[in-house]
């Protein structure tokens, strides 16, 4: 079945440091890939996504490139801020079909806690 | 516009009791998903609705769990004879159901934190 593996956490960085959170996946089909973020006290929200190989998703200074050859979707940011402290989830959505209509249920990694200190 | 809403935000119940968790999706979103998030884990899929029908309920852990969406908008997740292991955050998400629906963004509600004593 489908699975997502994220790097072990938590991750603690100083402000302006470079961030990488590794994510690899296993899927039977050709999935879409997502990074979701959960800020303290808030719900899950989409950070970025990529739907085909070599696509780069980007948002708020974060980037991730869909690498089919290495089945990876690593999250990067060049200079983190204290406000980036949150839990980050890598997820995939593989093609599914029911009643002739496609849909995509998400499979999540276990999450990586990021803490950024001033 | 309004996002996905879920009620209650917190629910504390005793072992063996029945609970209902409500989800109000974004207006116009045909697809509705329920997930369960245990402490320190990522969300896990429970059930998917395509309009009024449960098109995929493969993630429901057992027959104590049931969900409905009678008019194709609001959904209710029902748990009978609750057990301590049911304690988790229950998340609802909705999305537009386009032709490439597995690429669609799912919008999550804030979740209902269920605690079974």
Quaternary status of these chains? heterodimer
Terminal CA distance of chain A: 41 Å
Average pLDDT reading of chain B: 92
Strand content of chain A: over 45%
| Overall outline of chain B | globular
Q: What would you call the shape of chain A? A: elongated
Low-confidence stretches of chain A: none
**How many alpha or pi helices of chain B?**
0
Class based on secondary structure composition and strand pairing of chain B:
mainly beta
Descriptive notes:
With 118 residues, chain A is mainly β. Chain A has no helices and 14 strands. In chain A, the strands form four sheets. In chain A, strands 2, 5, 6, 10, 13 and 14 form a six-stranded mixed beta sheet that branches. By secondary structure, chain B is mostly beta strands. Helix content of chain B is 0%, strand content 47%. Chain B has no helices and eleven strands. In chain B, strands 2, 4, 5, 6, 9, 10 and 11 form a seven-stranded mixed beta sheet that branches. A four-stranded antiparallel beta sheet of chain B has the order 1-3-8-7, with no helix packed on it. The chains are: A mainly beta (118), B mainly beta (117).
Output the keywords:
heterodimer; A: 118 residues; mainly beta; elongated; B: 117 residues; four-stranded antiparallel beta sheet; 0% helix
């Amino acid at each position: 079945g489908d699975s997502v593996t994220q790097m072990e956490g938590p991750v603690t960085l100083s402000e302006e440091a470079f961030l990488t959170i590794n994510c690899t996946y296993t899927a039977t089909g050709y999935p879409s890939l997502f990074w979701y973020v959960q800020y303290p006290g808030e719900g899950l929200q989409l950070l970025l996504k990529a739907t085909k190989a070599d696509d780069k998703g980007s948002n708020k200074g974060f980037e991730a490139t869909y690498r089919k050859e290495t089945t990876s979707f690593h999250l990067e940011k060049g200079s983190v801020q204290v406000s980036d402290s949150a839990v980050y989830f890598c997820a995939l959505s593989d093609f599914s079909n029911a009643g002739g209509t496609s849909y995509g249920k998400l499979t999540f990694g276990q999450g990586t806690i990021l803490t950024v200190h001033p | 516009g309004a996002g996905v809403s879920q009620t209650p935000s917190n629910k504390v119940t005793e072992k063996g009791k029945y609970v209902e968790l409500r989800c109000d999706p974004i207006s116009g979103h045909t697809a509705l998903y329920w997930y369960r998030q245990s402490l320190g884990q990522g969300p896990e899929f429970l059930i998917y609705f395509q309009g009024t029908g449960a098109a995929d309920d493969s993630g429901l852990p057992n027959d104590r769990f049931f969900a409905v969406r009678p008019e194709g908008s609001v959904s209710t997740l029902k748990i009978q004879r609750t057990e301590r292991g049911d304690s988790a955050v229950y998340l609802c998400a909705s999305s537009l159901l386009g032709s490439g629906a597995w690429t669609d963004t799912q919008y999550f509600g804030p979740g209902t934190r269920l605690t079974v004593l």
